[in-house]
Design goal:
The complex is a heterodimer. By secondary structure, chain A is an all-alpha fold. Chain A contains 20 helices and no strands. Chain B is α/β, with parallel strands linked by helices. Chain B has helices at residues 2-48, 51-57, 76-84, 104-112, 152-161, 181-185, 187-191, 224-246, 262-267, 278-293, 315-335, 346-361, 363-380, 385-413, 420-432, 437-453, and strands at residues 63-69, 91-98, 114-116, 130-136, 142-147, 167-171, 176-177, 195-204, 209-211, 214-217, 257-261, 298-309. Classes of the chains: A mainly alpha, B alpha/beta.
Chain lengths: 364, 473
């Protein structure tokens, strides 16, 4: 091939042929476009800075103006009308935001008084609970839940069917109230919707409704149509409620169930509300092939068993899974078999530190 | 014929450089756009669900903080004090003294009244021998595990073995966590039960005022080299990691601050001890493991929990750090190259991994060769001065645009630098860094590639000033 610079389609050649010029033109256009892009980015950043600074100053001014009025209203010195007179129409939503900050800190009558201030403008936020993107809906639900949960309970219950888990959770948290167990069935019916959330979080949420929902929780725990995770959460909530009648339900479930989360939760429940007569059933699970179930069984047996179980626990100290050993060590302390643990701690066994730790924790 | 061949190679290489340049910067632009959207959504989400409520409602799952320490006598006491002051209901601290040859252990023992105390392991990841385990009498939530030297990954594995909480937070012993950092970094685990790891943002403490282990006044560093790194970190975290997170393709969680589900880490065998990039390697291995086994798992980045860290202020130390980072990247990507362009691994296999493999790993070599070939082409008359100028201008303006976009993302989200002068300085840095600093980084990364090819191991020494009260860089 007879090589001639400029004949090959390359980037640029000394002679500015068509291809070269094209590339150069593209580069020049890119420079101009990128330059403007940089200027636009810088402009946006500066504008954001100015906007944020102004917004902060505006907030500061409004805060200084509203705070004394709100405090006066809370102690009964100012009427709703007097406070509202200080709020310009364009600042009404800012005002709601401002009230929201207080709402989390107040309880009882004070909170009612605060909600009174938000009442006339809250319907605007209620309308937003069904429109906008997820975060806008979530924010609206959060606001309404904090400032007018009872007036707008029906609308909030409807949001339990929102497609976004975040919106559902905010609504559920607001409705999960000890004083209003009538909302609970709506939440319990939708527990499967919370599958992505931390189990402890959901359990705490439903347990705070109180003993009024124990019957519903028992129903969920026994219902094979509910998913295992939800049944486990029901068992956990019953444990937190210390619902003694749940022991017999846990026994029934343990006899027929195979789902590991449900088994573990029922064992934990039995550990809290079970009786000595349940120990024999629990012993069976100490031989489970699942280490998680085994660990919970040993821990539960510590609560329900007696000193005769010491050899079983001693054996479990050497279980392949350290967590099982730790449960067994804690249970040995529980049943008062310190001597077994002390001997093991002094034995030089690789797991001896586990026994020493259990003994130390007991002493501390 | 040989001249012809040389010319053809030069041409071809010019095209490769141009392609690399366009591809790399397109990815940066795309991640910045994703990050923009994700940060806006995140800020709104924060408003909708108060973090303190969430943590209080969840009963705050216990967290073990694992802080490996090797020859950290200058900063260890201050760092531990700041960790003890964290605002989280249920946490413990495991400092793993990795065979320090200085007075790290003695300083910790004096400051916190350490006494030998048993603590049983919960996992059996192979590690170097543990010599003794201490517990503080002054702060019972503080444990110090003294072990034989085995490197950072080995120390972390010892911590994982002795972790009794469902989650552990891996941090550098010389980092300062913000008071609410744990409440914020646990959030993805509460919101999504499939989360197995989440990373926080690393910010540079140089120039800031530190009092009682807390950053009280945030400023840009006085040193130009450190200031460049502030901008670099903003780009890397707010534009890069936020963008990759939005695409659900996180491959890196900084070793200085990341929260992990203990069982998943134990299942994959803990940190790899034969790489200097153990943080990235673990994340890639966890992603790979979960994708191969069909385990639903999310690994994400959270932009608001902050760990403050001291960055190098000398070329020598910075060069060593970048050399190490590049080696870590190469080791990790080579080890898991089965994921490259492999659909089995979803977006990670088809997008994130190829990006890191082709652009971040090979990038420095292409870039350096690009500079050389560019100059050669110019001298050979293949490229006209007009073209060279135009190309360099494109590179310059694009670099500036991306850096300013990162500053914009910071302004949009967290506004940590409230002084107007700092904002203007960041703009200026976005221009100045293109003249020398970026080229130096390329050189250090090339050196990292060379070190990796030679099979060099080890971390190199990092000099620390410490965070004494009122410290300002």
């Amino acid at each position: 091939m007879d090589f001639q610079p400029g004949s090959v389609v390359g980037l640029v050649f000394p002679e500015h042929d068509l291809a070269t010029n094209l590339v150069l033109i593209l580069l020049c256009v890119s420079i101009v476009a990128l330059f403007f892009l940089s200027v636009i980015f810088a402009g946006i950043t500066i504008r954001l800075r100015i906007f944020n600074t102004r917004k902060a100053l505006h907030w500061k001014r409004l805060e200084a103006e509203w705070e004394p009025l709100i405090l006066s209203h809370l102690v009964g010195e100012k009427t709703v009308a007097e406070v509202h007179a200080a709020v310009l129409p364009r600042d009404q939503l800012f005002f709601i935001d401002f009230l929201l900050r207080y709402a989390r800190r107040l309880r009882g009558e004070e909170r009612e008084n605060l909600a009174e201030l938000a009442r006339p403008w809250l319907p605007r936020i209620v309308a937003r609970m069904k429109s906008g993107d997820v975060t806008q809906r979530a924010r609206a639900v959060h606001t309404v839940c904090n400032l007018g949960v009872h007036e707008h309970a029906a609308a909030i219950i409807e949001t339990l069917d929102d497609p976004a888990p975040l919106v559902v959770l905010i609504a559920a948290r607001a409705l999960a109230q000890k004083e209003h167990p009538e909302y609970a069935p709506h939440i319990l019916a939708r527990l499967e919707r919370f599958d992505s959330w931390s189990q402890n979080f959901i359990v705490s949420m439903i347990a705070q409704i109180g003993p009024a929902i124990a019957g519903d929780l028992v129903g969920i725990l026994e219902s094979p149509s509910r998913v295992g995770r939800v049944r486990a959460m029901a068992a956990e909530a019953l444990k937190q409620l210390n619902h003694l009648d749940a022991a017999d339900v846990a026994v029934r479930v343990l006899k027929s169930e195979t789902h590991r989360e449900v088994l573990a939760a029922c064992l934990r429940l039995l550990g809290a509300v079970g009786r000595n007569e349940h120990a024999s059933l629990v012993r069976r699970f100490c031989n489970s092939t699942d280490p998680m179930v085994r660990a919970h069984a040993y821990r539960t047996l510590g609560f329900l068993g007696d000193k005769d179980d010491a050899p079983v626990f001693r054996h479990a100290l050497e279980d392949d899974f350290p967590w099982v050993g730790m449960s067994a060590a804690a249970s040995l302390v529980q049943i008062g078999a310190r001597d077994v643990l002390e001997r093991f701690a002094a034995s030089g066994h690789p797991r001896a530190s586990l026994a020493r730790q259990a003994l130390m924790q007991e002493g501390s | 014929m040989s001249v012809e061949l040389a010319w053809t190679i030069l041409h071809a290489f010019n095209w490769i450089v141009l392609g690399y340049f366009i591809l790399l910067n397109s990815v940066y632009l795309v991640t910045s756009i994703f990050a923009f959207r994700a940060l806006r959504l995140y800020a709104r989400r924060l408003k909708a669900l108060e973090i303190d409520d969430l943590v209080a409602g969840a009963g705050a799952p216990p967290i073990s903080l694992i802080a490996p320490a090797h020859n950290e006598e200058a900063t260890c006491v201050e760092s531990v004090k700041s960790l003890l002051a964290l605002n989280y209901p249920d946490f413990e601290i495991l400092v793993v003294n990795d065979g320090s040859s200085d007075r790290t252990l003695e300083r910790l023992a004096e400051a916190f009244d350490l006494v030998p105390s048993p603590r049983s392991p919960t996992a059996e990841i192979p590690t170097k021998n543990v010599r003794e385990i201490y517990r503080s009498r002054r702060s019972p939530d503080l444990w110090v595990i003294d072990k034989e030297n085995g490197g950072k990954a080995d120390a972390l594995n010892v911590g994982v073995n002795h972790c009794h909480s469902p989650f552990f937070c891996a941090i550098d012993a010389d980092s300062l966590l913000e008071r609410d950092a744990l409440s914020r970094i646990i959030r993805p685990f509460l919101e999504d039960g499939t989360t197995v790891a989440s990373g926080g943002i690393i910010r540079i403490v140089n120039g800031c005022t530190v009092n009682s282990g807390m950053v009280t006044d945030i400023r840009l560093p006085r040193s130009l080299l450190a200031s460049f790194q502030v901008l670099e970190y903003l780009r890397a975290f707010l534009a890069g990691r936020m963008g990759w997170d939005a695409m659900n393709s996180t491959l890196i969680i900084s070793g200085a601050f990341g929260l992990f589900r203990r069982t998943t880490v134990v299942d994959v065998g803990g940190y790899a001890t034969d790489t200097v990039g153990e943080d990235m390697e673990l994340v890639v291995r966890m992603q790979r493991h979960c994708l191969e086994k069909g385990i639903p798992a999310r690994i994400g980045f959270v932009p608001d929990p902050v760990a403050w860290t001291e960055c190098p202020e000398t070329m020598k130390v910075l060069g060593r750090q970048r050399d190490r980072w590049q080696r870590g990247l190469i080791e990790t990507l080579s080890r898991h190259r089965v994921m490259l362009f492999n659909r089995r691994y979803g977006t990670i296999g088809t997008t994130a991994f190829p990006y890191f493999y082709c652009l971040e790993m090979m990038g420095p070599i292409i870039e350096l060769c690009g500079y050389i070939v560019f100059i050669a082409s110019w001298f050979a008359g293949i490229l006209t001065p007009l073209f060279v100028t135009a190309f360099l201008l494109v590179a310059l303006v694009l670099g500036i645009a991306l850096s300013i976009a990162a500053v914009g993302l910071e302004e949009l989200s967290f506004r940590r630098y409230p002084r107007q002068s700092d904002l203007l300085k960041l703009f200026a840095l976005a221009i100045v860094e293109n003249f020398g600093f970026r080229q130096l980084c390329t050189y250090w990364r090339v050196r990292g590639v060379y070190s990796a090819l030679r099979g060099r191991k080890g971390w190199g020494k990092m000099d620390r000033k410490g965070f004494g009260d009122g410290a300002r860089g």
